Amino acid sequence: MSLIRRNLSGVLVLGIPILWIGLFMLLPYGIIVTYSFWVKKYPTFAPAFQLGNYLTLFSDPQYLRVMGRTLKISVLVSLASAALAYPFAYWLVFRCRSAKLRTWLYMAVIAPLWVSYLLRAYVWKTILGTEGVLNSFLQWAGVISEPSSIFLYNQFAMVLTLTYIFIPFMVMPIYTALEKIPVNLTEAAADLGMNPWRAFWTVTLPLSTPGLAAGFTLTFCLSFGDFIAPFLVGGPDGNLMANVIATQFGAALNWPLGSALAIVMLVVVLTIVSLSDRMERKGMTGGV
Amino acid sequence: MSAIIELEHISKHYSPTIIGVDDVTLAVEDGEFVTLLGPSGCGKSTLLRMIGGFEEPTHGTIRLADKDVTFEPPYRREVNMVFQDYALFPHMTVGENVGYGLKVQGLGRAEIETRVHEALKLVGLFDKLKLRPQQLSGGQRQRIALARAIVRRPKVLLLDEPLSALDAKLREQMQIELKHLHEKVGITFIMVTHDQTEALVMSDRVVVMEKGRIAQEGRPQDLYDHPASPYVANFIGTTNFLPGQIARVEGTTAEIALGGGRLSALLDAPMAAGTRVTVGCRPEKLRLMAEGESAANVLEGRIAEVIYYGLGLRIAVELSDGARVHVDSLLPDRLARSAVPPVGLPVRVAVEPHNVFVFAGDVAP
User: Fold this and answer.
1) Which of A72, B257, B271, B292 would suit a FRET pair with A281, their CA atoms being 20 to 30 Å apart?
2) Domain limits at B225?
3) Which of A97, A180, A192, A207 to mutate: most B Cβ within 10 Å?
4) What is the CA radius of gyration of chain B?
């Protein structure tokens, strides 16, 4: 009886998640991988086993450009987030004297995550657009006489929007990593003759790299797969890989090519994740 | 010998009512081993951190080798600190940790390497050069922290409760090792501890602190044998306290009336007859008397409790007024265990007049 019950609870506890992952993650991946080897055959596509889709992706300049652009935007978003988030997190952990203020500011960083992602992306449209807040302000201030369209629908607007949306994912891990550094390590550095600047470069920064790596991974992967921001603020030259995939599965009706692109994306993301995972583990154990 | 560290009227007031350190003046001689001793919150660590430059005093001056360093940051002081939990850098090897502080001294690579090797050999851990601190035991980390501090050849080495994280056995061993290291390197050591044994074993001079002030300073024996206050008598060693009143004074000898008898005592300072006092005596200076024996001071009572602690016995004797005194008796002979006295037995306790402390006032801690 108890054996049966134990087995039953075991099946429930492990079985449901396994079924879930199998049905909704592994199976779809399998299908996508399979599709990526198929061929386009007007009006739809047919089963096959060939690498034509991958060859197209890596030889057609149109796709290469999109992949390059996606990579560039994601790297820029990660860099911009890190450049903004690190000093902020550092100030919060080491310089902010009031614990209350620290909590409030930290919450202020997290709070936007509770607001719909779409809304947060859309906000930038109203700020940067020709009828937007920025243009109205500049006109009011007399800097420009006509509304300018240079702010919206370009790569800068995309990087700005994505940085704004994903920066909490950079602040959180850096904050956590900095908070874990014992105060007496920086004191020891000062004691051993290092001025604050040198102490930062030799002690604080190396010890916070796991957080930096985690934040980089998160913001990179999130913006790498982004679909909405390019759609809303990216303009005609703003298509990213996710948008192309959507087109292939939609209007273009070329599922095999879309699948191949999805697999390429997956490989890039998995590579980044495993690299940063290795870095984090190295940082945590001090390289042992 | 000249003073390497001079503290003049050092105070640290966190607020008008919260006072960490209160008007401390202290000079430490070059090459001395000085211990700041006191319970937590007495200001000893704050004082040490001010010498190290991690905190600034609100009043007073700190001089290091005749130079005013009161407001100099830590990285411009020729003192080094061994932190309580060692503060070794986890992302560096043992060798890199020890060499870290030499990089700013403008030494060549070869010179740094030689000095790191020397320091590691001094603490007996040269073979751990390439390991990470996390791979070492507590005692080994302690030694690395020491090596990292002394490799810079500071004028003063500060030690913040250096042995508190070690287990009892290792602590005892490290006490002696630290003492020997001090003799070998000849650097001034200033240590902070709440452990009186540590202070007595290692230091040339002990500074007992109480509520931000210096309660008493002196050589370990002087503090133990001539405590200036019940606080010091109680913090260093164990002391029986009994309230009394001086009945008669004759030269330096006073006769004191207690609730449960009379004692004569040798006074450190003159006191008038009629003064209310607190008498203190160490348990190991008391002795149970044999039948028919006589002594200068005799207290009569009954045995209330006997505690066996291996080395000997601690016997609680209840005097006629109900006060208890502890008497320590070593058991140098295994057979002597049969001589453990039974509870309830009437006994007489002897103590020599020069082994009795007399403190003015009704001030038992």
Assistant:
1) A72
2) 3-234
3) A192
4) 25
